[in-house]
Every structure is written in C-alpha cells, then in structure tokens.
Amino acid sequence: MAAISLDENGLPEGYPFDPEWEMSPRQVKAMLDAGEDFVLLDCRTPPEFDHCRIEGAIFLPLQEVGRRLAELEPACEKKIVIHCHHGMRSLQMASFLRQRGFSDVTSMAGGIDLWSMDIDPGVARY
To answer: Could you report the per-residue pLDDT of 6-40, keeping only the tens digit for each?
Structure first.
C-alpha cells in the first residue's frame, strides 16, 4: 500500500475532520497512555477483528449493537471512542448511541487503518 502524507495531527492531508464527532488516533493513543477511563469499542466484523485489533478494545460489531445495547448501559456516562476499518461504520455507531442517550461518543478518524499507519505499524493493514 502506498504511503500517504499526514498532517500535524496525524490525519491524511485534506481529511474533513469533525471534532464534534471524531478523535484522531493520536488523541486516542494519548488517552490510552494517560490511563484515562474510557471505553474503546471496535465495531468491525468478526473476521476483521480476528485479522488485527487494538489492544484493550472491546469488540461489539455494528450489526449487533441493537440487540447488545444493554451491555453498554454501564458506560452510558463514560467517554466512548468507536473505531472500525476507516471510520464510516464507527460514525454510524456513534450516531446510533447518541440517539439512545449516550452522552460522550466519538469515532476514531481513519479507523484502525490510520492507527496502523500512524500509531502502531505492528497492527496489520488490510
């Protein structure tokens, strides 16, 4: 895969970052490093999760969130950061959770693919 140019925030040049809905992988990494109390959700499919993952992420596929919503109720007042492969499904899940009363939910911009490029090249890209 060709290397892409990242800006000073670790986002691809020209990425339409929306801070109301997204956090950069660098922001998420800083929260992990600081030991902040938040939930990192992986909303990809089982085969994607089996292929690679971010250590400590809780696996909850987007297609299962409706029927497994009760599992997230204890985290309703916590910060939740969701990631997928590139950031589209995680935005859908963030919207779904916000509509159901979760107060602090964001998507990780660029997903696990950008995480692999900028934070941890040991996480396989696909």
So the answer is: 999 999 999 999 999 999 999 999 999 999 999 99
d(CA 124, CA 35): 24
Task: Give the CA angle between residues 90, 93, 94 to the nearest 5°.
Answer: 85
In whole angstroms, what is the distance from residue 87 CA to residue 112 CA? 8
Tell me which residue of 107, 118, 104, 126 sits closest to 13, measured CA to CA.
Answer: 118
| pTM strictly above 0.90 | yes
- For residues 66, 58, 89 and 108, what is the CA-based torsion angle, rounded to 10 degrees? 140
**Rounded to an integer, what distance in angstroms lies between the CA atom of residue 12 and that of residue 46?**
27
Place of tokens 């992986």: 42
Q: Which residue has the tokens 């250590």?
A: 55
Using alpha carbons, select from 15, 5, 17, 4 the residue that is nearest to residue 106: 17
